[in-house]
């Protein structure tokens, strides 16, 4: 459609820089200044200074005992999610992944020969993971649990008590905790984020983070992974991680130059998530406009860049939500992602990104409302 010259409003992907959110000036200048130095391969796990800056960040987040060796820099967290699953899983191994999820996790588990077993997050409880469901789904084949906090696609932020319950289960069943914390600075209404790995030293944690979201630089492809906690039984796994890491030689080096400056400099994300900051305003606006639509309910995001509204199935009896998304795109030129794209269990949700400016968000959600009205009467 775009090739035909049509203008689409995109509420479908958290590509922060594409919506007029600039990356911090100093990290851009840092990369440009170091372009010449960035020509050689780096250490396969990443440059020392960059990993040192990440190590200091883990100290700020109260994760104990992390050394430079425990840190792997990748071409975005995405590459490390893939790599960490490939190193871990034998055919038939199970990994607990939330539903709804960030679908790369499910895909990475399956591609590595494992089986993603989905545990429910409960919309009535602000999308909190259902501890009883997690417990019920642990089997002798379960190797690990993935916790995405702050959450994509729901915008939820999990309280410490709940995180501790998951850590207790991991300890009891010797599961590795994969903590995806890539939105740990996108926090609204004064809430704070706790790194899961700060909650125990006797459980193995793999924490994922990166520059894409907090520093509005998705395209620079900078992510990292930190191994912490109980490493006693993980020696072979760590050998596997080191091997896969060296097989790709190293990650994008210009991007690595941005890390130290980003983590140590002025945290301009705080301005965007402040009470009157652009992200907070856009979250509030999109939540209001969405919930004004008859038959649409939506838990307001506490964090991250997304919301996952529900369409009342009595009013909108959708059978194929992917088709629903295509029909909306065709008719109203608004792109959303259907809920089942996040491995959600029923065709009654969709995800929106509240990154477009207020005018575009207003137009887009007005068009969604118009489409739903048409859909209901059709
Ligand atoms: N994890 C989550 C929860 C995400 O939403 C994303 C991107 O949207 C990623 C990981 C991947 O980020 P990166 O750009 O670092 O590969």
Automatic annotation (TrEMBL):
- Enzyme type, top EC level: transferase
Q: Which SUPFAM superfamilies match?
A: PLP-dependent transferases (SSF53383)
Keywords of the record: Aminotransferase, Pyridoxal phosphate, Transferase
Show the PANTHER family listed in the entry: GLUTAMATE-PYRUVATE AMINOTRANSFERASE ALAA
Residue ranges of every copy of the Aminotransferase class I/classII large domain listed in the record:
7-368
Protein EC: 2.6.1.2
Keyword Transferase attributed: yes
Cofactor section: pyridoxal 5'-phosphate
Q: Which domain of life is it from?
A: Bacteria
The record's listing under InterPro entries reads: Ala_Aminotransferase, Aminotransferase_I/II_large, PyrdxlP-dep_Trfase, PyrdxlP-dep_Trfase_major, PyrdxlP-dep_Trfase_small
GO molecular function annotation: L-alanine:2-oxoglutarate aminotransferase activity; pyridoxal phosphate binding
Q: Does the keyword Transferase apply?
A: yes
Please state what the protein is called: alanine transaminase
The entry assigns this protein to a family as follows: Belongs to the class-I pyridoxal-phosphate-dependent aminotransferase family.
Recorded hits in CDD domains, A to Z, give: AAT_like
What the entry lists under Pfam families is as follows: Aminotran_1_2
């Amino acid at each position: 459609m775009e090739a035909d010259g049509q203008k689409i409003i995109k509420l479908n992907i958290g590509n922060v820089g594409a919506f007029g959110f600039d990356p911090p000036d100093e990290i851009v200048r840092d990369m440009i200044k170091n372009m010449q130095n960035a020509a050689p391969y780096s250490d396969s796990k990443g440059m020392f200074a960059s990993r040192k800056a990440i190590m200091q960040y883990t100290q700020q987040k109260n994760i104990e005992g992390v050394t430079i060796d425990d840190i792997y820099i990748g071409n975005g967290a995405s590459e490390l999610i893939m790599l960490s699953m490939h190193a871990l899983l034998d055919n038939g191994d199970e990994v607990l992944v939330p539903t709804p999820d960030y679908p790369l996790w499910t895909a990475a588990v399956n591609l590595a020969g494992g089986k993603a077993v989905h545990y429910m997050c409960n919309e009535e409880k602000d999308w909190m993971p259902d501890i009883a469901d997690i417990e019920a789904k642990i089997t002798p084949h379960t190797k690990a649990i993935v916790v995405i906090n702050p959450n994509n696609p729901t915008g939820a932020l999990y309280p410490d008590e709940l995180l501790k319950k998951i850590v207790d289960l991991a300890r009891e069943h010797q599961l590795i905790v994969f903590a995806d914390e890539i939105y740990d600075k996108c926090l609204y209404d004064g809430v704070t984020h706790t790194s899961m790995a700060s909650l125990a030293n006797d459980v193995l944690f793999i924490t994922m983070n990166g520059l894409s979201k907090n520093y509005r630089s998705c395209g620079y492809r900078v992510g990292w992974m930190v191994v912490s906690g109980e490493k006693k039984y993980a020696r072979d796994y760590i050998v596997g991680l080191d091997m896969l890491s060296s097989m790709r030689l190293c990650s994008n080096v210009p991007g690595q130059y941005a890390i130290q400056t980003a983590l140590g400099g002025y945290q301009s994300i705080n301005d965007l998530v402040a009470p009157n900051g652009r992200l907070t305003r856009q979250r509030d606006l999109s939540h209001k406009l969405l919930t004004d639509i008859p038959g649409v309910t939506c838990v307001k995001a506490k964090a991250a860049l997304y919301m996952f509204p529900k369409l009342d199935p009595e009013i909108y009896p959708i059978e194929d939500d992917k088709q629903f998304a295509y029909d909306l795109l065709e008719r109203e030129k608004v792109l959303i992602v259907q809920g089942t794209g996040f491995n959600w269990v029923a065709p009654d949700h969709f995800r929106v990104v509240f990154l477009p400016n207020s005018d575009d968000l207003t137009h887009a959600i007005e068009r969604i409302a118009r489409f739903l009205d048409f859909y209901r009467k059709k």
